[in-house]
Design a protein that fits this description.
- The protein is of the alpha/beta class and 267 residues long.
- It has a single domain, classed as Aldolase class I (TIM Barrel, Alpha-Beta Barrel), CATH 3.20.20.70.
- It is 39% helix and 16% strand.
- It contains 9 helices and 10 strands.
- The strands form 2 sheets. An 8-stranded parallel β-sheet has the order 5-4-3-10-9-8-7-6. It has a two-stranded antiparallel sheet with strand order 1-2.
- Helix 7 packs parallel to helix 9.
- The longest helix is centred in the C-terminal third of the chain and has 21 residues.
């Protein structure tokens, strides 16, 4: 990726726009190979299921931390599985102590079937964690008003969903994502959840999203390493298409070559 296309999480400059989850891979070796194939510089780590009740590493955290170090990647702990702002705030502080990072992917579930974020608990937790010095990356829906509230709370990065977690449905509402991009031009937007195919990642990046995050589409693939590589290509293709400027769509045919005159503009 060209130097001028760097993006940032906090003060950290990144060139890869593909964030990868670490759960559910067949083995640590396959996970490391998938990370290398993806080129990802940011790995997410769900702490609620991997920390003991005392907040100590139960083994998996150490494996992921060693893998990230071997791949020269940053860890982004998340609060997946939390149902209240109080639980999410507590887990975020545990993550900061354990992993020595201010980054937190903030998740607060509001519905058990869709795993849709609770906008009220999410906002409460975001306000407190920003005050506590965290770089908060809230996992949210594509609702514009909720996004504005999170930005007002001090969030500089938002992670709107494409579809429910693990569904693989792709971009259910491209209009809403396009609206977020247009109305929040200075906010970093990372599409998270619901991406099932490399083409979904391409479509998200073509909308002007800054990055994508996914897990299941790679970890559950028949060949996770090859799928990670495919997504990396999809992310790059979508970003290049956005930067190049996509042609406008039309409901009617438009002749590529005019009937008369020159096919090229000559000066």
């Amino acid at each position: 990726m060209a130097t001028q296309d760097l993006w940032h999480i906090g003060d950290t400059a990144l060139h890869s726009r593909f964030l990868l989850g670490t759960a559910g891979h067949p083995s640590p070796a396959v996970l490391q190979q998938a990370i290398e194939a993806s080129g990802s510089q940011v790995l997410t780590l769900g702490l609620k299921r991997t920390l003991a009740t005392t907040g100590q590493d139960n083994g998996f955290v150490r494996v992921i931390r060693d893998t990230a170090q071997a791949c020269n990647a940053h860890l982004l702990p998340n609060t997946a599985g939390c149902r209240s702002a109080r639980d999410a705030i507590s887990l975020a502080h545990m993550a900061r102590e354990l992993l020595d990072t201010r980054w937190i992917k903030l998740e607060v579930v509001g519905d058990e079937q869709t795993l849709q974020p609770d906008p009220f608990e999410l906002l409460t937790a975001a306000r407190q964690l920003v005050q506590d010095g965290f770089e908060v990356l809230p996992y949210c829906t594509d609702d514009l008003v909720s996004a504005h509230r999170l930005v007002d709370a001090g969030c500089r990065i938002l992670m709107p969903w494409a579809a429910p977690i693990g569904s693989g449905l792709g971009l259910l509402n491209p209009w809403a994502l396009r609206t977020l991009r247009a109305r929040l031009p200075h906010i970093t937007l990372i599409v998270d959840a619901g991406l099932g195919a490399p083409s979904h990642a391409t479509a998200a990046m073509e909308l002007g999203m800054d990055a994508v995050l996914l897990n299941s589409a790679v970890s559950q693939a028949g060949d996770p390493v090859r799928m990670a590589r495919a997504f990396a290509h999809g992310v790059r293709a979508g970003r290049e298409g956005f930067l190049a400027g996509l042609m406008p769509s039309s409901d009617v045919a438009i002749a590529t070559t005019p009937v008369g005159g020159q096919p090229f503009v000559l000066s």
